[in-house]
């Protein structure tokens, strides 16, 4: 029995509010249950030094957590003067995931930065970030297409992410914080709409897992991502109205 | 004529949504028009080193702006590894303003941190932060009183803040971003409900101002703060239901 | 009765020693009583990135305090690896105050940096810094005029600053350290020779103040600045000999 | 055809030289072909703050790369003043992998730090680090057992790691640098001797991969780790002589 | 012929103004010609962690240069966020030199910090710092003896320092900036009153030097230090009046 | 009697293994007894900003110590976020020493960086670094000559370094760690093959030393460097085969 009463293969409610803020070229507030992440997509007509003059664009991400997004206040990274290893690991993962569905040559020499800021945390902040970032990126690219700055769509397909883990011996989908903090294994799965993986990261937290365990997590992830893809479609459609 | 069409003594719409997040002891999303700040109040049962063993508490503030709260993206302070002078100046002002209405001895040996994170910026983020922080602090202290951790209320009265400035020769109340960026003088006024000031900061940005000009700004500020005090009352009442 | 025995409207002795060091284009050692600040003005034939190619100059300031300028030693900011919020707030104030009397277009594409280093602190270090910085800036610009690098004087008038506060219920001028550390309200007033203000910053430290209180501080400031303007004139005249 | 001429399921030569340095409680120089990593295990009779007084120990890792371990010199992280996201990600992975085979209660209140410093890089530095760190940890714990500081062995079994990827369409084992830089997918697999996984991290670098592709990589990893386990045994046996 | 017209064995004018500032337990403004350094000695009744509980004291130094002490402005180390290698090297040298004449056991569990801040630089700032620091330390210890906090004098003798170098083929004493920047060899010599050395640092800057060259520099240093010892005596005597 | 049983004028075994790593243009593992330093020479076809366009090259050094090179683990400088004063002092010394034997004009507009990383420390790491760095630099320059990128050899002669000190009253050559930590005086001597000095740094650690003492250390250093020069020759000859 899960603390939330959910079935093992049951996602939390997925909410995606497009255009949550007004300055960014794309923005959403995404919720996986009580986990809430604000994602903005910012377009800049420049690329990082290593890409200058190569006719290619770049998609990158930054991640942050407001100090009191969590149960107890954690110190502000800007005040400490550096980003933690966890923060850097997460933002690298988000960036790679979005680049997996972007044709960087088709994007042209511009950079899109996805800022993922966790307003409230209850497990799964990195997977909500990736799933929301796709919508923000989609909206920003739609603006470029609408304005005639792009004529070919550089977004090749949808990407979504979800966490799965083994909680009290049972593989479960979309771990919330109480599950996450006591799961024996915990994985983050980044999937494309065509059923392939951009990233699998599965970590044993106590007991290790075998190949069969990993496969069961993969299948749960597939179910969860299908739901997220549908929610992404609804959000993009809603934003267009 | 103001860019927004407002009268010189007209505030923007004030919106205060209490309990915007669920982990903090107090939280609000405050809006002064399109400026939106999320403020959380976090109680910790410890005080900074300089107060240890003195039987007194502390109220402090931190301020941040999400990278794309602004028209163009600014870099993340956590990534740059330090907070700007502007950020530090603002968070020191917020902390002083709230301490002006808190009896630190009555608070006991605990610290309350007000985290003010700007979700969307359109001028007046520091004054919205102070005004919202009072509500978050009020809610957090109400929780301490309700739980019996405090028997005397350490909050002595309300505090609010508003900006005023001289825009195209006319003193105006509650500057938005287009006004702020071209005003000749720009002041932030922190007032208590009893009509006294906790802080006056008035800066000439082009033409300097005389005593009469300052007095006209003070009177506008008084009008604006009266509206904010009323909105604070409504928010606290709403949170109690 | 003030700890120093001064009358409420009495400044400390103002001493300004021009050309205190020899490498800077302008330099002074300014004293407000026992507060001693060394100010140097350095001219560089370049401007910060945001001004490049705009045909305008820049005036900026940096502030520091020697570790044992104070009663007890404080740690060296260079060793701690960052400047405090207080330091940044002060140097931003000094820079703004000097820019209020400089025609940046007339200055041309060059930068003048005012370094204000406190040798000995006894209250009022930021106001002594501003008042001394004007003399250093005047001397540096005189050198540019003398050398034919400038033909029009970009300094539009004099600027000075003084602190005033409410000490044991009485408004007093030019607070020294014993007064500063126990005043109920404490303000810094930056005035131009024409009687207008470039900056007013008045902070309640315990009891808040009302409009009448603020006006009384403004009037004291006006008296203090008149004395400082005279001392600045004498110093500039002395340097010319 | 692999650039090195190896068969798809062929590891590079594994060399493990125990006791490479003399001060550390355990040390090895491990080579996976031309990749050479020096790993030392340092025992300290203290634990990090979050574990104090809990009767448990801690195993952690730090990772570094000498500036000229690579084809072109990269800047020294100590000189830049911070560790890259990549470095932090790798050292977190190494630490988790070793903790997966350590009974921290049995270790008692002491910390063992595995320092993994890459002397020469040719792909697979993190997997060589994990595989070598196990030997260094084994040697350090053997010393504690020999000295009577421990009576129960806290190391529950062996752990090893290897990278696999899809190179020119073919799944291959133990990628070297030329393969790593052009592989379509790249995974790091951390396995225990009992056949279970402590960590799977598989990233698409260009084309995404499907479940079948992931399973083929898992099977190659299993073959590679079997070879590493044997090399670890030989190294521990050699050190004992 | 030296640029200043001095004889090869001629020091610049040595000026030592004791009690230059009033808060420090000891302070001097020392001048070697146009090089001016403010040195303060601060006593704290605590020792660094590595000495706690050992019944010994510590003497340490910090060094800084005001941004415009030099011909062209250099950036402020506090603003850059770190001290240069040169700064650290110099402050380590000053600390060692003073410890060479202090009986740390006799000092008791307290720390004396010598802050050496260069007001104006014209070569020889580190040797002026050491020579002035001895006077500041002497004054601070005299205060401890006078107040009865010490009954035995922990200062065992005098220490002074001077630079010597080979300028246009001739060994010269006390290099000023024009000499320093073109000397072929440049040494700093820290001597005790008894004729022994606490430190010799002689660096070839272009042509290397032989043993005979080094000996000639040593002899010049001995002459220079004799003059400095006399000036130190006069300063201490003057301060006592 | 020295702890190691060596005669006062006896060096430890000098071992120099050329081409220890394969990516660097020059590399050696140098040992002075149990002190082992890996030195690599990296050629880059660019110079630091202060030399751009001047037709000159640059030789510089960086120094690091692996965390467990020492008896007890010290923290990693990359993790602490800054290099210690000791590290910076040493790397500045190494750079100066190598530049003393390099004709920077003949080198052309390129930079050679000597990375000296201490694998195991037992006293004398800086002198072993300098002595090994010369071999790495020689090998790198030989490669430039062989490839026709240089036609004139910019290395003017050999440089070596050794430490000497006064241990229990006796001047001894090449201090190991037990001697170093209790010597009364400790010097580092950097010599050229022609018998001149590039650098002498002699520090009293307890008792100061007189001129005669210094001369005896100089003579020991001369004997030690003669041995190192011979070992350098053998290493370069060995690398050529």
From TrEMBL, chains A, B, C, D, E, F:
Quaternary context: Homohexameric ring arranged as a trimer of dimers.
Domain Exoribonuclease phosphorolytic: 10-140, 159-222
Alphabetic keyword roster: Nucleotidyltransferase, RNA-binding, rRNA processing, Transferase, tRNA processing, tRNA-binding
Reactions catalysed: tRNA(n+1) + phosphate = tRNA(n) + a ribonucleoside 5'-diphosphate
Residues that hold phosphate according to the record: 86, 124-126
PROSITE patterns: RIBONUCLEASE_PH
Entry superkingdom: Bacteria
Alphabetical list of HAMAP family matching this protein: RNase_PH (MF_00564)
Listed EC numbers: 2.7.7.56
GO BP terms in the entry: rRNA 3'-end processing; rRNA catabolic process; tRNA processing
Name used for this protein in its record: Ribonuclease PH
Gene3D superfamilies linked to this entry: GHMP Kinase, N-terminal domain (3.30.230.70)
GO molecular function: 3'-5'-RNA exonuclease activity; tRNA binding; tRNA nucleotidyltransferase activity
Record flagged with keyword Nucleotidyltransferase: yes
Function comment: Phosphorolytic 3'-5' exoribonuclease that plays an important role in tRNA 3'-end maturation. Removes nucleotide residues following the 3'-CCA terminus of tRNAs; can also add nucleotides to the ends of RNA molecules by using nucleoside diphosphates as substrates, but this may not be physiologically important. Probably plays a role in initiation of 16S rRNA degradation (leading to ribosome degradation) during starvation.
Native source species: Sphingomonas aerophila
Family: Belongs to the RNase PH family.
């Amino acid at each position: 029995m899960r603390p939330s009463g959910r079935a093992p293969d049951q996602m939390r409610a997925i909410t995606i509010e497009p255009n949550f803020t007004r300055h960014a070229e794309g923005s959403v507030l995404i919720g996986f249950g009580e986990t809430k992440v604000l994602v903005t997509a910012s377009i800049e007509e420049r690329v990082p030094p290593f890409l200058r003059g190569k006719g290619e664009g770049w998609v990158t991400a930054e991640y942050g957590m407001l100090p009191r997004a969590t149960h107890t206040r954690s110190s502000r990274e800007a005040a400490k003067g550096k980003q933690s290893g966890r923060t850097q690991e997460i933002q690298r993962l988000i960036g790679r995931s979005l680049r997996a569905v972007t044709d960087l040559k088709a994007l042209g020499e511009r950079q899109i930065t996805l800022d993922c800021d966790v307003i409230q945390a209850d497990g799964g902040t990195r997977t909500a970030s990736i799933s929301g970032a796709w919508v923000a990126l989609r909206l920003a690219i739609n603006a470029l297409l609408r304005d005639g700055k792009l004529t070919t769509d550089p977004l090749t397909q949808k990407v979504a992410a979800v966490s799965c883990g083994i909680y009290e011996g049972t593989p479960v989908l979309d771990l919330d914080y109480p599950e996450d903090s006591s799961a024996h294994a915990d994985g983050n799965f980044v999937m494309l709409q065509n059923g392939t993986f951009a990233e699998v990261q599965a970590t044993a937290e106590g007991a290790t897992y075998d190949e069969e365990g990993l496969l069961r997590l993969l299948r749960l992830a597939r179910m969860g991502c299908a739901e997220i893809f549908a929610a992404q479609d609804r959000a993009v459609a809603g934003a267009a109205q």
